Amino acid sequence: MLRNPSLAEIAEITGGELLSEGAHGQCLAVSTDTRTIQKGSLYIPLKGDRFDGHNFAENAREAGALAMLTERELAVDLPQIKVKDTLLALADIAAWHRDQFNGRVVAVTGSAGKTTVKQLMGSVLNQRYKTLITQGNLNNHIGAPLTLLSLQPEHEAAMIELGASAVGEIAYTARLTRPEVGILTNVVPAHLEGFGSIDNIALTKGELIDAVTPSGTMVLNADDHYFTQWLSRATALNVISFGFSDRADVTAKDICESLTGSEFTLVLPDESVSVSLSLSGLHNVRNALAVAAAASSLGFSSVEIKAGLEQSAAVAGRLERCKGQRGQVIFNDAYNANPESFCAAIDVLKLAEGRRILVMGDMGELGDAATTMHVRVGNYAKDQSIECLVATGPLSKSAVEAFGDNGHWFENREAVTEFLTKTTKSGDTLLVKGSRSAGMDQVVRSLADKEED
């Protein structure tokens, strides 16, 4: 931690009651999982529909916890601070910890591109600063506070990813993060089941704007349908826009796409520089523009921006290229999926020579629009002249039907893997994609060359 609070300070921060009279010591870290507790940690048990972290208090003691927060007094030989809600107390401590940090803080949200922008921006920030970057998918109401609590004295900057699946969630995490620069990538139909409508998604993602620090900067997508709405919401901030439209402050020209990446001229407000990006797809060029806009607002030079963008590698499961056991080229894009990201990935597959095969799993959390959205992907793949569609999952059956000839649907992933093993060969390019719940990464692991580095 940046500063190690005493138990009395933690009680004050959380509005809690220190139950253990005379208990002392300083908290060295915070953990919500007894398996990751270090000696001197504060254990914060959380509750869910099927678990209650309070039941593992003894494990926390055995692991060396200094103390624990609790919603009820427990019979465990460990100092306890009683609070009304341990989840809200976690947020209180994270907000306090953020207040101790004087470095640069950048936050990103949006329906798609968040993780790629996070990695690219982290790479640019690292050109000057020792930077904390959100790990994995720790971007929700639990993950974001834990990420903030990971800030250490050596950190000079933080790149925080904020995700949401319902209205109000960005407001909650952004309030804790208080970024100097906020990046809003886009709004597309994703998590519709939780949001109810795409308008609600736009409003929720826009909650980041309200949390940017005074005199801070908001980075907005000039190509997005909701750009004007967000612009009117950001009147108290500096705004810099990115995209391919004429109204964008940061844009790209002379774009040359390939399966191994994209080359383009990055056009900043005051200068231009050539960039060779190792990420494929026009959508990733746009992600790079978002990062360039944010970095420019922080005073980074074009040389630093270029170096950071070019040094960043593909995110695992995001158009990650690997070799198949039979010499196929496999693009692992199984980290997650929504209709827009599916179509963007198909645009990359379209660049391949030889036979192009889309391997599809269901897209989740689309609500009443689910069937329509899967039909859309099937039609788009057909329109882009993709030779073959192989799918599994009840919703993906409608995509196969829309695709028509050379569309194949199977009951499970194992049958998909068996079919692809028998029918694909060297020279074929496979794009494997689906929502995380579809588990299409298992298909990639089954097909990939185990001897490849």
From TrEMBL:
It is an enzyme of class 6 (ligase). It catalyses: D-alanyl-D-alanine + UDP-N-acetyl-alpha-D-muramoyl-L-alanyl-gamma-D-glutamyl-meso-2,6-diaminopimelate + ATP = UDP-N-acetyl-alpha-D-muramoyl-L-alanyl-gamma-D-glutamyl-meso-2,6-diaminopimeloyl-D-alanyl-D-alanine + ADP + phosphate + H(+). ATP binds at residues 110-116. Pathway: Cell wall biogenesis; peptidoglycan biosynthesis. Residues 317-436 form the Mur ligase C-terminal domain. Residues 30-95 form the Mur ligase N-terminal catalytic domain. Keywords: ATP-binding, Cell cycle, Cell division, Cell shape, Cell wall biogenesis/degradation, Cytoplasm, Ligase, Nucleotide-binding, Peptidoglycan synthesis. The keyword Cell cycle applies. InterPro entries: Mur-like_cat_sf (IPR036565), Mur_ligase_C (IPR004101), Mur_ligase_C_dom_sf (IPR036615), Mur_ligase_cen (IPR013221), Mur_ligase_N (IPR000713), MurCDEF_CellWall_CoF430Synth (IPR051046), MurE/MurF_N (IPR035911), UDP-N-AcMur_synth (IPR005863). GO terms for molecular function: ATP binding; UDP-N-acetylmuramoyl-tripeptide-D-alanyl-D-alanine ligase activity; UDP-N-acetylmuramoylalanyl-D-glutamyl-2,6-diaminopimelate-D-alanyl-D-alanine ligase activity. GO terms for biological process: cell division; cell wall organization; peptidoglycan biosynthetic process; regulation of cell shape. The keyword Cell cycle applies. Its main location: cytoplasm. It comes from the Bacteria. GO terms for cellular component: cytoplasm. Coiled coil: none annotated. Residues 108-295 form the Mur ligase central domain. NCBIfam families: murF. Belongs to the MurCDEF family. MurF subfamily. Involved in cell wall formation. Catalyzes the final step in the synthesis of UDP-N-acetylmuramoyl-pentapeptide, the precursor of murein. This is UDP-N-acetylmuramoyl-tripeptide--D-alanyl-D-alanine ligase. It comes from Thalassolituus maritimus. The lineage of its organism: Bacteria, Pseudomonadati, Pseudomonadota, Gammaproteobacteria, Oceanospirillales.
